[in-house]
Design brief:
- By secondary structure, this protein is α/β, with parallel strands linked by helices.
- The chain is built from 17 helices and 12 strands.
- The longest helix is centred in the C-terminal third of the chain and has 35 residues.
- It catalyses: N(6)-[(R)-lipoyl]-L-lysyl-[glycine-cleavage complex H protein] + glycine + H(+) = N(6)-[(R)-S(8)-aminomethyldihydrolipoyl]-L-lysyl-[glycine-cleavage complex H protein] + CO2.
Length: 477
């Protein structure tokens, strides 16, 4: 398709922008551009058709199956958007007097109560912008906690080798040293290896359970006890909360802080980069280290307070409020019975797909999985030359989004499949059929799989070249 600049014709314009309704102010000479501003000149039909065509190039949850592993990316019920669009929510200003936004502030206190019940946490902040930002905030609290105890020797964060890549990155940003712990033959934390690296310099552990290969670690309470006995803290990466919400709680497993991907686990997919919401919950003994603007219900109404040993603000104002409105709507709609039912269905769907594929694709860690499972294409690649990337590209031919590839890195030629609870049996059966067809093509027509996709708006691209030599601006002649 043409770029908007390629559609441009001199002299064309449209009246989509309203007339100026504020006093016009001249720009001081010092701030004026020294070169002409290049903007496309297009008519209203042209611009409308351009963005419609652009939208058709993308594949989202509303288009078809979207099993993007590790992200819990699922359908967003439309009632969520209706609630977020209510004028009392959508038209708020962050500097309004608190007595004019009491209803909105109750969204914070009610969400804290319900999410605290789900996670086993006592307090929660909604400032962090998304999951990794929540990790960063939690680790700042880890650091502040140890410093408050004059325990300056604790500078190491333990991270399993199957962890999400943001875990070591977040810990490094806070200034911690990363200690990697290997997985055992079952894909879980190697207890003996963990014990060997824990000591007086341990600040904490970062872990998700179920883990990245979709297995619930049976030793989880022993793992967190090892860290606590050494004087460290336990952080729960909430990316994989989807299959256990309403069933078991991170707080009961021994975790002290948990971050949540509100924008995914609680149904507001943020594919494309935003908006997200990554609140963190903590046990009572860590409350005073929370960020500023902690909402508390008083006799006068809900007010913002500043915890006594706060780490400060981690984002402007109070976080992405409307994403939280969507999540609260989802929780209230499902209720006490619906939340665990969603978790059970996520597990059921993943195991259904795994059962119908593991006769062809190798599943390194067998048995019952949770919300996701990881397949390896290593043998197929050795036999046919067809890689995990080739399989993923072939899936695009069938109007489905491919799963996460090459992650976790402990599985060679990995494909991580996470169907989520919102997909029907018919959708899963169609996906299974596609995977089985690609397997057959790999052995009978490998050149076809290597060349895929052949019928998508954009064919196979040079991803390495695109990453190393990106073209991100239009070159005017």
């Amino acid at each position: 398709m043409e770029l908007i600049f390629e559609r441009s014709k001199p002299g064309r314009y449209n009246q989509m922008i309203p007339d100026l309704d504020v006093p016009e102010v001249a720009i001081p000479e010092a701030f004026k551009r020294e070169s002409e501003l290049h903007l496309p000149e297009v008519s209203q039909p042209d611009i409308s058709r351009h963005y419609t065509e652009l939208a058709k190039q993308a594949h989202g949850v509303n288009d078809g199956f979207y099993p993007l592993g590790s992200c819990t990316m699922k359908y967003n019920p439309k009632i969520n958007d209706e609630m977020a669009a209510l004028p009392g929510f959508a038209n708020l200003h962050p500097l309004q007097p608190l007595d004019t936004i009491q209803g909105a502030l109750e969204v914070f206190t009610e969400s804290e109560k319900l999410l605290g019940e789900i996670t086993g946490m006592d307090h929660m902040t909604f400032q962090p912008a998304a999951g990794a930002h929540g990790e960063f905030t939690a680790l700042l609290m880890f650091k502040a906690y140890h410093e408050s105890r004059k325990d300056s020797k604790r500078h190491k964060i333990i991270v399993p080798d199957s962890a999400h890549g943001t875990n070591p990155a977040s810990a490094s940003m806070v200034g911690f040293e990363i200690v990697n712990v290997p997985s055992d033959e079952a894909g879980c934390v190697d207890l003996e290896a963990l014990k060997a690296v824990v000591g007086e310099d341990t600040a904490g552990l970062m872990l998700t359970n179920p883990n990245t290969v979709g297995i619930f670690d049976k030793n989880i309470t022993e793992i967190t006890k090892i860290i606590h006995d050494a004087g460290g803290l336990n952080y729960y990466d909430g990316a994989n909360l989807n299959p256990i919400m309403g069933v078991v709680r991170p707080g009961d497993m021994g975790f002290d802080i948990v971050h949540l991907n509100i924008h995914k686990t609680f149904s507001t997919p943020h594919g494309g980069g935003g908006p997200g919401c990554g609140p963190i919950g903590c046990k009572a003994f860590l409350k005073e280290f929370l960020p500023k603007f902690y909402p508390v219900a008083t006799e006068k109404g809900v007010e913002f307070t500043t915890p006594s040993q706060t780490i400060g603000s981690v984002k402007g104002f109070y976080g992405h409020f409307l994403v939280l409105v969507r999540a609260l709507t989802y929780i209230l709609y499902l209720g006490k019975e619906g939340i665990p039912e969603a978790a059970h269905n996520a597990v059921l769907n993943a195991n259904y797909m795994k059962h119908h594929l593991e006769d062809l694709y190798e599943v390194p860690y067998g048995g019952i999985c949770m919300h996701e499972f990881v397949m390896s294409v290593e043998k197929i690649k050795k036999d046919t030359g067809v890689s995990a990337l080739d399989v993923a590209k072939s899936i695009l031919e069938h109007e489905m989004h491919p799963p996460t590839m090459y992650f976790p890195m402990i599985v060679p030629e990995a494909l991580m499949v996470e169907p989520t609870e919102t997909e029907s049996k018919e959708t899963l059966d169609e996906a299974i059929k596609v995977y089985r067809q690609i397997y057959e093509d790999a052995y009978k027509q490998p050149e076809k799989v290597h060349a895929a996709p052949a019928n998508t708006p954009i064919r196979r691209v040079d991803e390495v070249g695109a990453a190393r030599n990106p073209k991100i601006r239009y070159e005017f002649s």
